[in-house]
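Lay summary. Proteins are chains of building blocks that fold into shapes, and those shapes determine what they do. In this project we predict the shape from the chain. Here is one chain we studied, written as its sequence of building blocks.
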Amino acid sequence: MDHLFCYSMVKYIIRWAKPILIIGSLVLLVSIFLASQLGFSYEIERFFPEDDDDASFMTYFRDKVERDDLFLLVGIDHEASIYDSSFLANVADFTTACKQLPVIESAHAITSFKEPIKTPFGLSFRSLLHIDDPARYAEDSITISNDSRIYKNLVASDHKALNVILRTAPALTQDQADSLNNELEKLIATYGFTKAHLAGVANTQSIFVAKIKKELLLYISLSILITAVILYWLHRSFWGVVIPLTAVLAALLLFMAYLQITAQLLDIMSSMFPMLMMIFGMSDLIHLQSKYIDEMEKGKTQHDAMIFALKEIGLALLLTSITTAVGFAVLLTSAIPAIRDFGVNAAVGVMLAYVMVITFAAAMLSLFPAHQLQQLKSQRKNWDRLANCLHHIALYQKNKVWGVTAVVVLLCVYGMSKISTNTYLLGDLPENSKVRTDFIFFEERFSGVRSLELAVLPAPGKSLFDLEVLREIDKVATYLAEKHQLGGIQSPAVLFKSLNKSWTGGLQSAYTLPEDTSLYERFGNLLMKDGRMTQFAVFDKTAEIGRITGRIKDSGSDSLSLVMAEARSWITQNIPENIASFRFTGSGLMVDKNNLYLRNNLIQSLLFAFIAVGFIFALLFRDWRMLFVSIAPNLIPMLIAAAALGFTGIELKAVTSVIFTVSFGIAVDDTIHFLTRYKLERSRGSSVDDAIRETFMVSGKAIILTTIILVFGFVSLIFSDFTGTYYVGILVCITLVSALLADLFLIPQLLYWINPGSRQPGLDKQAR
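And here is the predicted shape, written in a compact code that computers can read:
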């Protein structure tokens, strides 16, 4: 295979180096154009598990009734009491102006809130707040405080802020979301609201995508700068910097062009692709470049040095690419579309990087002699001293290495037990950003931002507007409000109580379900005919399915899972199934359920990855003992990454779960380079000691160089405003270092272990 790889492919790369570079440059120009056309997306549904009963029901419920993520909150802080006639008039005008925005279907505020009232001429509506009569403000404030429809929903708990609730059209495009937010900001400025706060999917979508665009450019720029500095420090050569960077950037551009050609959009996880492409491309390239320079320093010509370098490490480069791609491809087993797409795209990126290295990069390198790629002749002596030191530790520090490994594993097991999946909506919001400040404002002053949604399913033969069904709806809503502080509740029962109040002349004491059963059919007919009563959709067009909806504090996914579990238990015990059943649904439920899928899929995916990689190693080494040698060191980085999550309290979620796949790819990459070099030396007749020492000399250098460059490259992620991306940067750096240490210290001990009696003390002294 080596011979075929070398002489059927490499000779053409060397012979046609300049044409390859010309064609490659043209391809890159096209890639730059395609990459510039890439769009961005913020589709939270892509993070919901597919083929899930709750997901299917949510889709059905949304089609029948309404989505729970159509609302955009505009909180206006007055600092003083809102009962100021000029302020309220301003809010009223602002609310009317909001209704004129293209994608706004309705706008509600305390200034526009009206309740039904029965008159001799039929049903009429009256304002609850008498804006033009300040003398009644004191009385109005008491009424508002006692009305659950308004208090902490449209009016803040301290009556010093109010909330304008906008209902948007469903499934806004990115351009629509951006336009809406821009228009809202203009309106807010026009009406002089200096302390306005926004919250909702449309707002978050616009801000997140803007951040993703900004950070994507930031990561690429910082990665180029940091990598250039490190490469120059290592090589002190212009071309030693330019060629690796050009090859890696070429691979990244080609990858971005692939995304555009396949009609994909960038999302919050896409911001990691520049870093991942650096891992894929730089790792392969450093191994190739280091070997190429070493062979030329031994006296070989550029042509022979490149052929020899690819012959020596070409198979290792192919295997690392395949195994890393397999590690990402197993994410196809995930039930979450965003994770699946990430796995497929990362696998494609791995192979694109490999192709670019053995063609474009190899062609460029073959045009330059050693002195143009590296100026420091003394570096080889330094690397030799380091290799001898590592070999010395492998020979004489066996007990210390095993002892440290045991301690690390035990600490990791303890740290893993502390991993939390209690995620918060607040968790991914950028630190020190307005969107985070706005979120906290609604959490502290109103009922919160997070929606809680229950579907109401009358029993067969029952109608949603039956008295007994409405009573059960009211019981459930009351339980959620009193037990779990659900605020701003809307339900069919709320509408019937509002109508009953109107039938008694507006007495607050009549805000109950009517005692007169003859009123239910009349109220039902009114609700079906008069759209003014249903500002929030709480039943479908045929009144066959209903909805209880409200907002709740973001106490974390685990806490809210307990809330729903308690509510289900209470409903089972207190609500007869022969009257109605209730089912939690909505985007909040699916976000929380996503965590459970992540945990299950993570274990399953990693298991598949280990099996696949183990099979590849079995074919390569034809020795079952080498399976343990190759797989054991790859566990260490993942254990350390998991323990880091536990010790630091970082939640396991979609973004941070990718760390384990990246960790696996990094560890396997270095392990393959180490073991293929060891296998090559053993095939030449070297003893175990000689093979390990030579592996340190050749592959150890490239592995260390790669780790240094990648660690500094990933440091750029700490500049992210997204907490998830920030933590990924830190954790991947930890993983890179732990993978390096596992390969340099643990693999030699495992090789000695499967080859009893192979240690030869004194050999390292003779070598020096």
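What the prediction tells us: The first strand starts at residue 71 and ends at 77.
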